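Team,

Forwarding the record for the chain on the shared tracking sheet. I've put the sequence and predicted structure together so nobody has to dig through attachments.
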Amino acid sequence: MKLFIILLAVFFSYSCSFDDKTGIWKNNNNTFEVEDASVFKDFKNISTTNSLFNKTITLSEDFEFSLDEPIISKLWGDNFYNKNNNTKNFKYNDLNQIILKTKKLTKNKTNNHILFENDNLFINDEKGNIVVYSVDTNSILTKINFYKKNYKKVKKNLNLIIENNIIYVTDNIGYMYAYNYAIQKLIWAKKYKVPFRSNIKISTNKLITSNQNNDLFIFDKLNGNLVKQIPSEETVINNKFINNIAISEDSIFYLNTFGSLYSININSYKLNWFINLNKSLDLSLSNIFSGSDIVYYKEKILVSTNEHFYQIDSNSGSVISKKNYPSLFKPLISNDYYFLITKNNFLVTLKPNSDDIIYSFEISQKVADFVGSKKKKLEIKDLMLINSSIFVFLNNAYIIKFNVKGDIEELVKLPSDLNSKPIIIDSSLLYLNNKNKLYVIN
């Protein structure tokens, strides 16, 4: 089966801080790698240039945006917020006041993602600890470590998803287990031969994930039994890209480390379509695939590879557009507007149902003009749509707040550096700092 898929694939084939006084220009290492990418050459609107987009486009004076209304989020049980991997326009009090600062929750290196359910924060570390912290009582509710002594020296990379008091976990050892934190009981545990390497999605009673051999798995979430295993191309060389999964009502969308994007029927498990987004099937070190997390939105898949940003028809797999502005993160989407930050730190905004650019500019230059200093690199941690404004989070605790038209509203310094990706819960900002202390900002 794997050989058949590979033959088909062959066929189809920053840095951060601001002016020197405020400290915003600090932390000048850029960790995003540039690679090549290509896909079906005969589809319409496909860019043929390999040069990275670097054009400043000014917003038309009479242009008006209409975004989705900000929402109050109470739950963050998925690393990417929801099953589509698409975050929302979040409501935030934006008072920049500390309402909670905890003690160090763990002394070990933590995962980049934090989760939240029922007034509880969830973090995990490389020792395999899962810490459940009650924000309501300002105390650790429970601390879970599934592993026996013979795994004590093994660094664990846990993948979590939470639903209805149950934490579902896969790891880089090959274990999969479910733990009810409310009653502090292990529900089930399974050992599989190959380490898991992707996020987890839940669809009714199904858990969907994949391993480092690029096999896609569907498990019964009630007992952990294997329902279906779907092989895809196995890579010889492990790269930094982590397999990524998003789901719609009827399909699983799966991007593997080989650069292949699959659509699979969520009920029959039959292959709908697949395409390869890597530039080459030659798995040399110079051709290792890298890309962003995929987003499903209104019958489109949005994804970036090393050199291109794609819009793909989720029903057919045809490439709607392929542009030379690959994004550093998955795009923000609101009312069909796309906001993305490119690998060379341009903020690009696209029109609804189009790949026409509304405006674009280099963020570093915009900041330099705002603070009156020379341009330097910025190290960007994340971006979110908050109160209908674009919040760009920097690793050194600064936030650049752009209004929807791309003007800087203000530069705000958080109380401490960001160690985790931030989340918004009940109109407050939550994150771990570099000492693994939880900050809740109102």
